[in-house]
Specification:
3 domains, eight-stranded parallel beta barrel, TIM Barrel, 16 strands, Enzyme I, Chain A, domain 2, alpha/beta, single chain, about 550 residues, Glucose Oxidase, domain 1
Length: about 550
């Protein structure tokens, strides 16, 4: 048995089919006879790749849509085309000039760290697609062996993951990636069991049977017939239990823990609204801004928000104001030259430079809310201080929005949670960023996966601190990071005093089932086990052993 990081729960067994490697670069033939013409061919290839990614985004219709639209912006960066021209002038052949230009940008992303370093794998995929286009070669796609299979790869790019067929792909195993990588997020949204950061993946060959447990992270190579049968029996029993899991989130003794969905693209709306949830815990509004060259008008925003509010009837919808900057730059905003964008002007901080964007957004949200029955809440991302929380809440209230809160994803906000919550109406913990900033660990670095694990006791300390502050001042505190979709960790959050959990719609039944099987006292005991553990591995093991 080997293993990695389980990022999407479920059990599956089947033969391996590996994702083929992209085309390799030929030898550098040197100076292009017509550098200007070569630069034009590069521009055409960059645009072709961008258009293909946009086409996939339009067809994806789920969480992948926003990811792919953001990736499509990469080949359209004028600085990239300028760098390719420089490499051509330096005497490189066209494919090598493209590879060198992308390599320089990759190094800059890695050096920036944080969110931008997280985009390095996406940039590699764009580079490979551009080079393949120039060489007249197709990019290898998802394998099609003619039967269901376990997809194995060094890593998966969004363009690969977005189009996975759940009927064919039984599970995913990758050598690289972390718990908040795009592979993890997209696999969870698709409901496909997945294990990332698995070193043994590099040695798995086509046709080898593997048993994958996306909950524990275990990968069993060449399992016995009995092992597979037992796993299938467990999976079938779980499927039956999940099918019967309906209604509001409650512990076994009736304590409410609201179960909400995350929503971040127009294509996700129908599935999210039809899910058995209590509303939206995180409406990411970036989809309105990222795939365009001009700021959306108030009327355009009203139309988009109205569609969401109408779809959810009288349920709660928590709208996060624009979280741009860092890995989500806007084409119509001068973000400046930041040495470390992950720690720079992003999220709520951008309002200091461009206040009209925030006021227009709040106007649009309030206008749309006034025409529908949805219980609309609004919150700001990347708030660090009580003063920022107070300023945002006052601005939102002035615009007619009755409930205004803040994301807690900066350790300072958690450390001063009581003061922050005294200045606003609620808080929502973004565990992905909070974990990254707390442990000083790049979210895409596989070798740092242990630090990035949401079971880290240090991260749970900050969650506990924020939830305790919420109880003291009588304000709700939710979790809307990917960690909320872990059925075991959901029990810990409930025990810490978290009042709501927001996740991908596919994760709702498992979390609901887990909560319904445990009393609040059980959850508080499990939370104590996790908080007093030495590390994330021990925290998870302690809770798993106590539950099972």
């Amino acid at each position: 048995m080997s293993g990695g990081i389980g990022v999407s729960t479920g059990v599956a067994a089947g033969p391996v089919a590996r994702l083929a490697a992209p085309p390799e670069l030929p030898e550098d033939s040197g100076q292009e006879p017509d550098p200007a013409g070569a630069a034009e061919r590069a521009s055409a290839a960059l645009e072709a790749v961008a258009a293909e990614l946009e086409s996939r985004a339009e067809r994806a219709g789920d969480t992948a849509s926003a990811v792919l639209f953001a990736q499509a912006m990469m080949p359209r960066d004028p600085a990239l085309q300028s760098k390719i021209a420089d490499e051509l002038a330096a005497g490189r052949s066209l494919p090598h000039a493209v590879a060198a230009a992308f390599g320089g940008f990759r190094a800059a992303l890695e050096a920036a760290g944080g969110y931008l370093a997280e985009r390095a794998a996406d940039l590699d995929d764009v580079a490979n697609r551009v080079v393949a286009n120039l060489l007249g070669l197709p990019m290898p796609g998802i394998p099609a062996p003619g039967h269901p299979f376990v997809l194995v790869a060094e890593d998966l790019a969004p363009a690969d993951t977005a189009m996975l067929d759940r009927e064919r792909v039984l599970a995913i195993v990758t050598e690289r990636g972390g718990p908040t990588s795009h592979t993890a997020i997209l696999a969870k949204s698709l409901g496909i069991p997945a294990v990332v950061g698995c070193p043994a993946a590099r040695d798995l060959t086509d046709g080898t049977t593997v048993l994958v447990d996306g909950g524990t992270g275990a990968v069993v190579i060449s399992p016995s017939v009995d092992e597979v049968a037992r796993a299938q029996e467990r999976a079938a029993a779980l499927a039956r239990a999940l099918a019967g899991s309906v209604g509001p989130g409650r512990t076994a003794d009736g304590v409410a823990v609201a179960l909400l969905v995350n929503l971040g693209a127009e294509g996700e709306l129908a599935a999210a609204a039809s899910a058995d949830s209590e509303g939206v815990g995180l409406l990411r509004t970036e989809f309105l801004y990222l795939n365009r060259t001009t700021v959306p008008t108030v009327d355009e925003q009203v139309h988009a928000y109205s569609a969401v509010f109408a779809a959810f009837g009288d349920r709660k919808v928590v709208v996060r104001t624009l979280d741009a900057g860092a890995d989500k730059p806007l084409a119509f905003v001068d973000h400046g030259d930041e040495p470390n964008p992950a720690l720079g002007v992003r999220g709520y901080r951008l309002a200091n430079r461009h206040p009209a964007m925030l006021t227009d957004q709040l106007t649009a949200i309030a206008t749309a809310a006034s025409n529908h029955d949805a219980d609309v809440w609004v919150m700001a991302p990347m708030v660090s201080t009580p003063a920022e929380a107070a300023a945002f809440a006052e601005l939102a209230h002035t615009h007619g929005l009755a409930v205004a809160g803040t994301m807690v994803e900066v350790p300072a906000a958690a450390l001063r949670a009581r003061q922050v919550l005294e200045e606003c109406d609620f808080a929502s913990l973004g565990t992905n960023d909070l974990g990254q900033y707390t442990l000083a660990a790049d979210r895409m670095a596989s070798e740092l996966a242990g630090l990035l694990d949401p079971w880290q006791p240090a991260l749970l300390d900050l969650v506990a601190m924020t939830a305790r502050a919420g109880r003291e001042v009588g304000k709700p505190v939710g979790v809307c990071g990917e960690a909320a979709s872990d059925p075991l960790l959901a029990l810990v959050f409930a025990g810490l005093g978290v009042t709501s959990l927001s996740m991908a719609p596919t994760a709702l039944p498992a979390v609901r089932l887990s909560l319904a099987a445990h009393t609040l006292a059980d959850c508080e005991h499990l939370a104590e086990l996790a908080l007093t553990a030495r590390d994330a591995t021990e925290a998870r093991q302690r809770v798993a052993e106590a539950v099972h």
